[in-house]
Design a protein that fits this description.
The chain is of the alpha/beta class. The protein has 2 domains: 3-128 and 228-288 and 298-341, D-Maltodextrin-Binding Protein, domain 2; 132-222, D-Maltodextrin-Binding Protein, domain 2 (3-Layer(aba) Sandwich), CATH 3.40.190.10. 44% of the residues lie in helices and 16% in strands. The chain has 14 helices and 11 strands. A 6-stranded mixed sheet has the order 1-3-2-4-11-5, sandwiched between helices. The protein has a 5-stranded mixed sheet with strand order 8-7-9-6-10. Strand 7 (150-153), helix 6 (159-170) and strand 8 form a beta-alpha-beta unit. Helix 3 crosses helix 10. The radius of gyration is 19 Å and the shape is globular. It starts with a helix and ends with a helix.
Length: 342
């Protein structure tokens, strides 16, 4: 694909209509410049190409990236390409405009789209643990000590933004008045750099970056909370027309999670590239953290879904009344479970 064709595709998915998002052409060109193809397996003639978008950091796509590199998806006739977008809004836009076939890590995105009656459905989640820890340049022991501090967040509507507001509310702080929440696109690594530089006081970082943040001199506080940060979703219309292909994608994802848990060396090599880590101790910490919470059965727990909705309800109380599995179709992972028993 030529550069002009790539630009046309980027313009196409950003200019497609979504009520919660508006794009201008200059923004689209800028967005194109920062979109990075992070992983791909070259399509063979017999393989069907699939594109998966992930917002900001690639942590939620790690098993997909690993499976693409190791040929796992090729066994099912699929050629995988992972695309990193700058934020959740662009992730949703890519799916709605048919520029990608799947999203990963769009925990809040599914419910924004579903609540509007748009064409989206959750399929699975390979990790239902907390996606975040808090990293602070100020020596604090309790989240209540964030009062009056500047906290880096993802853009409005993003997972980290909703999570921060929920986290502050749980400890009795009003996110609208007790702290200054500063939006930064680009994932937890960008937010971490802003805190290390001294421009901001604290941020949520990927739970995999805890050791790395400590070595940078920051205080790290875990934030335990079940959460579907390993979510994968597609369009209902795409699932209806391509059910077997979607099932093969989930087969590949499940196999890739198992590979991630079993092949430490290959996984750490991928994590080194994706998380921009070189320190062996930080990589070991990240790997063990991720491995401990991985779910090859791909089942999203009810509590993990409810917590996503609870975080979003601080922006719009209507999210709290959405039944947890309303926008999911778990029939495919249930079929895979039944097949595994045979």
């Amino acid at each position: 694909m030529s550069d002009d064709q790539r630009l046309d595709r980027a313009v196409h998915f950003c200019l497609g209509y979504l009520p919660i998002m508006k794009c201008h052409y200059r923004m689209v060109v800028f967005a194109f410049l920062v979109i990075t193809t992070l992983a791909s397996s070259r399509p063979a003639s017999a393989e069907t190409p699939l594109r998966i978008a992930t917002p900001g950091a690639l942590t939620g796509a790690l098993p997909i990236y690993l499976g693409g590199k190791k040929g796992v998806f090729s066994k099912y006739g699929l050629a995988i390409e992972v695309i990193a977008t700058r934020n959740e809004q662009m992730n949703m836009q890519a799916l709605m405009s048919d520029s990608v076939q799947f999203l990963t890590s769009s925990s809040t995105g599914l419910f924004y789209l579903g609540k509007q009656g748009l064409d989206a459905v959750g399929l699975a989640s390979w990790n239902n643990s907390s996606p975040y820890s808090l990293a602070s340049r100020v020596k604090i022991k309790d989240l209540k000590e964030l009062k009056g501090r500047k906290i880096a967040s993802s853009g409005a509507g993003g997972r980290a933004d909703a999570y921060i507001r929920f986290m502050l509310s749980r400890v009795g702080l009003d996110p609208r008045s007790d702290a200054q929440i500063i939006p930064l696109s680009g994932g937890s690594s960008v937010r971490l750099a802003a805190v290390v530089s001294g421009n901001l006081d604290a941020t949520l970082i990927s739970s995999l970056q805890g050791r790395q943040a400590e070595k940078l001199g920051l205080t790290v506080i875990p934030v335990p909370l079940e959460y579907i940060w390993g979510i994968n979703l597609t369009r209902r219309s795409y699932l209806s027309k391509n059910r077997e292909m979607v099932k093969n994608y989930l087969r590949g994802l499940s196999d890739s999670v198992r590979l991630m848990m079993a092949d430490k060396a290959s996984t750490i090599a991928v994590m080194q590239q994706v998380l921009k880590m070189d320190d062996p101790d930080s990589l070991e910490y990240a790997y063990q953290t991720m491995r401990a919470d991985a779910r090859p059965d791909l089942f999203p727990t009810e509590e993990a879904i409810l917590n996503v909705l609870r975080t979003m309800s601080y922006e719009d109380p209507a999210f709290a009344s959405i039944p947890p599995y309303k926008f999911f179709d778990l029939s495919l992972i249930q079929e895979l479970k039944a097949e595994a028993r045979r």
